[in-house]
Amino acid sequence: MQYIEPLYRPPSEARSLILQVTNGCSWNHCTFCEMYTQPQKIFQLKPLATIDAELEAIAATGVAVRRVFLADGDAMTLSFRRLRDILCSINKYLPDVQRVASYCLPRNLLHKTAAELAELRELGLSLYYVGCESGDDLVLARVRKGETYESSLAALQKIKAAGSKSSVMILNGLGGNRYSQQHAVNSARLMNAAQPDYLSTLVVSFPLGVQRFQEGFGGEFEALEQRGLFTEMHTLLSELTLAQTIFRSDHASNYLVLRGTLGKDKQKLLEIVASALDEPGSVTLRQEWQRGL
Ligand SMILES: C[S@@+](CC[C@H](N)C(=O)[O-])C[C@H]1O[C@@H](n2cnc3c(N)ncnc32)[C@H](O)[C@@H]1O
Ligand code: SF4
Is the pTM here over 0.90, yes or no? Predict the structure, then answer.
């Protein structure tokens, strides 16, 4: 495969074939995200003929591919018809594929109907990684996500209505000190309304410095220290009323690793966070050098 690097995928797609059907991100304005800001990552579609040729080459290796992840940042920006064509090619060349997944901005689904998503699901596309980041409109505006509580909820509901699964990312620390509480409470409110299949939290980090991010906050952003991050996580978990959501806070950006199923494990997870807050040293934390994006 010929990739235009850097290439990002969710941790749970580590064993999937990464099929780069676009380069970069069609939005690329979120102030916390530097993933597609290098010159070679300017957004463009990959021609269908090139995708076909890549799939044909993989088929020729004889390797049985079971999972495919459509890269880059928001492959769901592609039209329904283009996605359908790509999925048909995947099925033609890789008949063992059981699941196709993609990152998805809520607005990528604005002009797609639940019936179209159901057709894509029939063709294999059944899991969407949605970077909600927050359920708080003020925080979303400050980080220039271009989404709101309502737009995020509408997309998650459409995914559910189509019979597909959603995996949501929320960013711990995104509102800084000042908006930590409302970020946690409104993110929980969004998750409670949407009831996603998977929820993961990542700690917001600033690989290229905080300046671009700080501009969105008019210079008033104050990053949370570890204790603030744990307090925010405690509030988020306390406010969550999820029936059956697999919760993961194990991405390399996290200091405190949490895994469980919500609501069943809510109390257990809250106790771990409380221990990290009240008895420092009693819970193993990732060291700074072990963290990454
Ligand atoms: C490659 S991006 C693609 C997501 C997709 N474009 C969307 O917005 O839904 C995947 C996720 O990485 C996370 N991410 C990006 N920059 C980050 C940062 N500086 N710190 C922590 N997480 C970050 C965000 O949660 C983002 O949704
Ligand atoms: S978070 Fe997603 S939408 Fe925002 S810039 Fe990064 S890839 Fe694009």
Answer: yes
